[in-house]
Amino acid sequence: MAFKTITIKKSVYEKLLAMKHNDESFSELFERFSRKNIDTIKKLRGTVEFRNKGVMMKEIYDKRREKRYL
User: Tell me, what DSSP letter sits at residue 28?
Assistant: First the structure.
């Protein structure tokens, strides 16, 4: 198993520590969070219909470009 070290602010660490179960590692906490979000995304998939998806996507990409070059 590979491991990575990450750096977070102390305030973020304290918030995560408060959310972590006593018998849970931080890796397990992150897995729990990611699983929960994936399930929510899967439930939402296909529930929204865009009338003009091409225009919307162009606006999103244009805004991203603007922010990158500010």
Answer: H
Residue whose entry in the numeric block shows the structure tokens 């992150």: 30
The residue ranges of every structural domain in the chain are 10-68
Q: How confident is the model over 4-37, as pLDDT tens digits?
A: 888 889 998 999 999 999 999 999 988 888 887 7
SS3 percent helix, strand, coil of the chain, rounded to 5, is: 65, 0, 35
| CB-CB contact of 40 with 50 (8 Å) | no
- The pTM score is 0.50
32 token code pair: 């729990």
